[in-house]
Design goal:
CATH architecture of the largest domain: 2-Layer Sandwich
Mean pLDDT: 95
Helix content: 25-40%
Low-confidence stretches: none
Distance between the termini: 38 Å
Bound molecules: biotin
Order of helices and strands: HEHEEEEHEEEEHHHEEEEE
Number of domains: 2
Number of helices: 6
CATH topology of the largest domain: BirA Bifunctional Protein, domain 2
CATH class of the largest domain: Alpha Beta
Radius of gyration: 18 Å
Number of strands: 14
Length: 260
């Protein structure tokens, strides 16, 4: 199957992106952006790649790369959207919410939900992972890396990933234009970012409505402890709240496993 070509100059017309660089192959678009901060174009800047050979995920995760998937990183300044520093940690949730919104029109009849902090799930499988990083060298920027399985069937993935992930091709049985999907994601991302300063409570309410974990028995590993309990959802700081045997506990970071 020939790889569909992304006409990235049209992205600058139809979305809020001001500069685009598209690579045929790179280890990780996030790493590329972090290493080339000074030479990237105007922000919001987008760096995409047709193939990542060393895609990184949160914590120890890796991101499986395959032709037909969409992998890109955005470099942007939250200040441009009047997002205050204390709300930066919530951007991680908000990017997930935006990706969900952007995907909906391609995935009618499917349940698209958000697994804290920012994985996007369709039905019971992960379709998109998001890695947000900051850089001490340029504190005003955030680096938002997004990996979305579009035309890459999970049949080609390693076994462990096949069981837990899905792609738009596998779900709908047809190929999708990566450019159309990317445009839709960027448009909803702009909508969400613009709403953060004045409408955060409403955005958090929307996030809660689509939480994949609420009500489920889960365990969370915050790299120091593993704690099990029933998920009560997120609080206003974006923390995940668990009802454990010893009372309620809140986590600001960690990796979650669903136990039931
Ligand atoms: C996760 O699932 O833990 C997050 C995965 C994030 C993957 C994307 S793909 C584009 C960008 N470049 C990377 O190396 N990682 C992110």
């Amino acid at each position: 199957m020939p790889l569909d070509v992304i006409n990235y100059s049209s992205l600058q017309v139809s979305t809020f992106i001001k500069s685009v660089e598209w690579l045929v192959e790179v280890d990780s678009t996030n790493t590329y952006v972090l290493q080339n901060l000074k030479s990237l174009g105007a922000s919001p800047a987008l760096v995409g790649a047709d193939l990542q050979t060393g895609g990184r995920g949160r914590g120890k995760n890796q991101w499986w790369g395959a032709e037909g998937s969409l992998t890109f990183t955005l470099l942007l300044q939250p200040n441009e959207f009047n997002i205050q520093v204390q709300h930066w940690p919530l951007m991680s949730l908000m990017v997930g919410l935006a990706v969900r919104e952007g995907l909906l029109k391609f995935l009618d009849h499917h349940q698209v939900s958000l697994k804290w902090p920012n994985d996007v799930y369709v039905d019971d499988k992960k379709i998109c992972g998001i890695l947000i990083e900051t850089t001490p060298a340029q504190r005003e920027f955030v680096v938002i890396g997004i990996g979305l399985n579009i035309n890459n069937s999970l049949q080609a993935a390693p076994l462990g990933i096949q069981e837990s992930a899905s792609s738009m091709l596998d779900l709908t049985g047809c190929l999708h234009s990566r450019e159309e999907v990317l445009t839709s994601l960027l448009q909803s991302l702009e909508d969400v970012l613009v709403r953060i300063p004045a409408h955060l409570p409403q955005l958090l309410a929307e996030w809660r409505q689509h939480c994949f974990l609420t009500g489920k028995r889960i365990s969370i590993d915050d790299s120091q402890h593993e704690v099990a309990g029933q998920c009560l959802g997120i609080d206003d700081d974006g923390g995940l709240v668990l009802q454990t045997e010893s009372g309620q506990r809140k986590f600001l970071a960690g990796s979650v496993t669903v136990l039931e």
